[in-house]
Amino acid sequence: MFDTLSNRLQGAFQKLRGKGRLSEDDVKEAMREIRRALLEADVHYSVAKDFVDRIRERAIGQEILQSLSAAQQVVKIVNDELVELMGQSQAKLNRSSKSPTVVLMVGLQGAGKTTMSAKLARHLMLTEHRRPLLVAADVYRPAAIDQLQALGKQIGVSVFAPGTSVSPQEIARTALDEARRGGYDYVIIDTAGRLHVDESLMAELTEIDQITSADEILLVIDAMTGQDAVTVADHFHQQLKLTGVVLTKLDGDTRGGAALSVRHVTGCPVKFVGVGEKLDALEPFYPDRMASRILGMGDVLTLIEKAQASIDEQQVMQLEAKIRKNEFTFDDFLAQLQQIQKMGPLNQILGLLPGIGKIKQLQNESVDDRQLKKVEAIILSMSKEERIKPELISKSSSRRLRIASGSGTHVRDVNQLLRQFEDMRKLMKQLSGMGKSMKGLGGPGGGLGGLGGLPGSMKGGPGAFAGGFGKRGKKRR
Ligand SMILES: Nc1nc2c(ncn2[C@@H]2O[C@H](COP(=O)(O)OP(=O)(O)O)[C@@H](O)[C@H]2O)c(=O)[nH]1
Ligand SMILES: [Mg+2]
Asked: What is the distance between the alpha carbons of residues 166 and 305, in angstroms, rounded to a whole number?
């Protein structure tokens, strides 16, 4: 996600590294690069300009924090401003004081409204324990109704679909009755789209809004549409009072412009993002996490939440204790490896980790889940004793040879794994210290347990870290 932007920004910061104090020229140069990076990422030019102006002012004016280097200061300022630009805190779905809450999904054709409707229904049902009703109000194409019905079936959510002979306005009206009768507390209305902004569609949507007094009007935007996204958002916002935006297809090769501009231009918060075609590919939008992803600091919190879903708490506590005592072994590593494989496609997971965005670029080859299998094979070829005391292997070339042939790999693969395991242990020790302090701040259950690392590509490629465990920090600060 946003790889090019991340790289360009990191390039700009790189030039500031090693400088004790920033001269005005340094700042100017860095700002030029940041501005260029934003424009290339399809950030709206007025947004880019404002953004850079604010950073320049803060970087020159200072705010000098003695404890930070010049480059760190600029990174911090850029981070703060990115968070500000994207809306500070996570914006939740509106909820009506009286049931049902009506959510109207609007947007251009192909933006992902129907998919997102189903994703939201699933999310409401599974994480908020609500009873959503999906409503098929795109009556212009029978296929659209079938599509929603199929999705509803997949997730076990009822779909209200009177058919193509009833007007969307009438469907919306009767859907509310149906929801009250059936005890549904959310009504998610999937509407028709057009290829372009179109007056008759706007009129229809406005009427549906009036009929249902929608509590939430979510504009669904395809993040790949770049600059256009802003124009579209602006149009929709003028006609309908949007209450939020959903960005879809952030899993694709999007440059990030829409994510960065849309809030500034419409004043509407981005509430969710879609990161895949599957119905669980939905994430709440956290401006702070997105900012650190863009800056290549990874997104440890999202990762932890993902891990949370697939990891047993008891195990996490045991692991934390081990990391603290520096007793982490290859057996634990193997257990992590197996957990990670449950978490989802490795590429996605890796992108969430600090520094990985950068490493991946070095290789420009996607990390392959087969590499995990290779690492697994190497560990499985170690004896019980070796797994607990890796130094036994480091000291003995015959052990290394045995393990390599046992796992069908090369000695250099074994060596690399050993090295990376050592590095990882060090990293984990640092992170577990961080975990403790976060826990102190974050209240009960808060804290980052630790991060596991494992070699990404064994072919002499960069070591990529994967894995992360921890109990969720309810509050970040
Ligand atoms: N990769 C990816 N594809 C998506 C995402 N959301 C929707 N799609 C795909 O985009 C296409 C259009 O989606 P659809 O929900 O029918 O759009 P609508 O016309 O606005 O209702 C479908 O092929 C979806 O599978 C997403 O977050 N990521
Ligand atoms: Mg649709």
From this structure: 43
